[in-house]
Amino acid sequence: MVQALAAQGGRYVLETVSPEGEREYEEITSIQKLLPWQAGLQPLINEGANPQTKVIAFTVTEGGYYLNTRHRLETSNPDLQADLQGECKTIYGTLARILEKRMADNAGPLTLLNCDNVRHNGERFHDGMVEFLQLTGKQAVIDWMAANTTCPNTMVDRITPRPAADLPARIKAQTGIDDKAPVMGGDLYPVGSGEQLPRCPPESGGGRRGDGGVGHPV
After folding, report:
1. Half-sphere exposure of 78 (CA within 13 A, CB side)
2. pLDDT value at position 156?
3. pTM
4. By the 8 A CB rule, do 129 and 83 touch?
């Protein structure tokens, strides 16, 4: 999928389906840069620490926060244990490196935008992130995070199923675009944030709709 999207210059077509079965098509052109996975995640860390990056939005599913029923970190999880030893297999290990680099580079304030459908998602992520930093002895990063980041609660609810096998053919017939990385979704998706975000319009870049990404203001 990443290779196909890269070959298309980050452009893809979104098919929106209404409850009545009506279909609309829109070519999405907001992605400015793709960062394929690589060990160590250094390109992602560099992009997250770029002073032009003002918003980091992420979706890792509810299980990706490794929280127990008391909203504390499940420190027995192997991936989380690895990150507590300095790796970056989880959202916490990765963002810890980004925050450390932003602090060292004086890269400015940042919004950490949780887009998972989890109750009090911003608070849950924030508390998990702070606990992770406490467990790794990074009080300076905690202090910097308190002064320079926001973690708003959000509500994002949109059905985005796996693309149907015949989706590329429908898009080709309706738009003339030969899309190898299409997306389909429902047309109702309430999105809300509990805090004001930095100016970062849709054209500014970042992840595909429903995915994580970083946003640069224009």
Report:
1. 0
2. 72
3. 0.79
4. no
